[in-house]
Amino acid sequence: MLRGLFKGLKDLLYPNCCLVCKNRIPAPDQEQLICTVCWDKLEKNLPPFCAGCGRHLTPEAIKNNACPSCSKCKTNFCFDRAFSPCQYSGSVKKLIHEFKYSRKDYLGQPLGKLMNTFIHDYHLPIEYFDFIVPIPLHKSRLREREFNQAEILSHEIARQFNKKVLTDGFIRVKPTKTQTELTWPQRCQNMEKSFSVTKPDLIKDTNLLLVDDVLTTGATSNEAAKCLKNAGAKKVLLLTLAS
To answer: Around Cβ 23, how many Cβ atoms within 10 Å?
Structure first.
């Protein structure tokens, strides 16, 4: 009885507001972080998907089976396929920035839910993966941010599908500079030899689901997949929250 009273007072004094629109979330959805209206409006990445980066293909790009960016770069990625449930724009972009840079690690739960729904809806072969592998942060960046957003998302997926997250044996050894203003060749050079497999026995002959928050050009994920395959991984599928 007292617990219900205290909860009622909390909801009255500190009503739960949607992280996107800032409006109060009505009952019975008070425990949610994003209201139903905003959740339904999140910018989804819909099929058909680019065979390279996994972004939505426009009617003009379908004939090439690749988006304009992948067609321009003409790069053979080291990961076998890539998928993203969301477009990196609007509310999704805002939520990811809050997640990464404002220390709102609790956003991993609703954002991870988007990835889990995508896996289920599009029948990604999650049962065939030996490990879920988050893109690691360099230790200096981890100290600054205090958590690895890719690892949080990986654990959300792992809980839903009863998989193991590999957080040991794959590390980031090079503190790279920001990629924002770099061209594709410069990004690749910036990321070269950024990762290392310290326990190759864990990687050899495995199928891996590589997880990150955002795919832009794919340079970071490509270098990570290259490192894992050089260590003996058979298949590496990339899943990012947005692209």
So the answer is: 12
